[in-house]
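During the reporting period, our protein records have gained a structure token line. A sample record is set out beneath this paragraph:
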Amino acid sequence: RKNLRQECAELFRNIDVHQTGSITIDDLRLRSGKIKSWFNAKGVGFAAESLDNMFKVMDVDQSDTIEEREFVHGLLQLCEDVRPMSIMELHYQVARCTSKIENCDQNVNSMVRTVEDLVYSRLEDAKKTKDIASQMHNLFDSRQHDSV
């Protein structure tokens, strides 16, 4: 596995001709022949049409670029057989994400209720202020009328 990791890193550096430490989908497309040859040498089926999808899956941080660690990890995953443990790990990660999303949803709903309560309270305060101002205006008008 260590040797395969080194080979993946070397392939990345061959694709990253500008030595920026990251590659774009265009870099992958331009060097799809190298990638296909590498996969064939490893006995892994690869279709050039899958390149865009492969890029999307490898771009874990959604930066529209793939860094070496993302590339190496992605290729290692593609080269390994699907193991029950991989499926369990994936299931675990999805369950954790689902739980976090549900917690965020609950927090957002709680915040919405708090904001709604504050708005309602401020509207009630504004109504009371308007009523007091109206009463004061009426009192002022009646005093002016009485003094005339």
DSSP finds six helices and two strands in the chain. The two ends are 101 Å apart (CA to CA). The CA atoms of residues 5 and 72 lie 6 Å apart. The chain has a mean pLDDT of 86.
